[in-house]
Structures are given as C-alpha cells and as structure tokens.
Design goal:
By secondary structure, this protein is α+β, with helices and mostly antiparallel strands. The protein is built from four helices and six strands, in the order αααββαββββ.
Length: 139
C-alpha cells in the first residue's frame, strides 16, 4: 500500500511540475534550444515580426536582421542553457539564465522578455557573471 501511495505521489508531483510551464516559458525554452542545436530556424520561429533585442553591449532595440547578423554568430560558442529562476506577469517575463560555453565557461544573465501572440516581441539582456561571452569582442 505504501508503494502505491508513493508512486501516486511521484506521478502527481511530476504532472504538477510539467503543468506549471507557461506558453511564454515554452517559447523561451525553444528559443534557447535553437542556440543549443545551432539552428537559426528554431530561434527565428519564436520571434514576433516586430522583435527587438537590447543589451548593454550597444544593442538598442535592434531588429531581427541585425540580431541575426550581430548576435547569432556567437551561438557557435553556446553549449547549454540552464533556466535558474522565472518570474512572469502576463506578457512579461524575467529569467535568470546560466549558459555554458563550448570551453565550459559559465555565464549568468538576466533576460527580460515581452510577448505578443505567443512569440517574443522583445528581449533585453543584462549581463551578469562571466561577462565577455566568447565571440562578442569583449575581454
């Protein structure tokens, strides 16, 4: 009987945790999956037509074509994303993310997203520890 109750508890916990992933979180996870698999089409499919990207590296609301030219090439250094903490309110989401580079360097950022129609309308990246992501020209 204890074994059945324990199994039921594990199943309920697993169902509860998976049920808590929102559409916006899925969009972000898929976006970063594109970086992990070096697949621009996966990344682009998560972006609303009016998507803009901003960062402290001089990116001020750059549109998709500039994001692809300026930022996408750094994906060759991208190995893995780990989603540390989410905070979501309606069509806005904050994410603390740790990224592992191909040389096993850990970079931690805070990203702020807005969404429109299930797609990313904007992304603002705030650099944390491990600044100087390979390929971005910073030391």
């Amino acid at each position: 009987m204890k074994r059945i109750a324990f199994t039921l508890l594990i199943c309920m916990a697993a169902t509860y945790s998976f049920a808590q992933v929102t559409q916006n979180e899925k969009t972000v996870m898929t976006f970063y999956s594109g970086f992990e698999h070096h697949n621009w089409n996966t990344v682009a499919a998560q972006l609303a037509p009016e998507f803009t990207f901003s960062s402290a590296a001089g990116d001020d609301h750059i549109p998709i074509p500039v994001f692809r030219t300026r930022c996408w090439p750094t994906n060759k250094h991208f190995q893995k994303a780990r989603f540390v903490q989410w905070a979501e309110n309606g069509d806005k989401l904050f994410l603390v993310i740790e990224m592992t580079t191909t040389d096993n360097k850990i970079i931690r950022n805070v990203d702020y997203y807005t969404f429109k129609g299930g797609k990313m309308a904007s992304m603002e990246c705030y650099f944390g520890t491990g600044g100087g992501y390979p390929g971005n020209g910073k030391k």
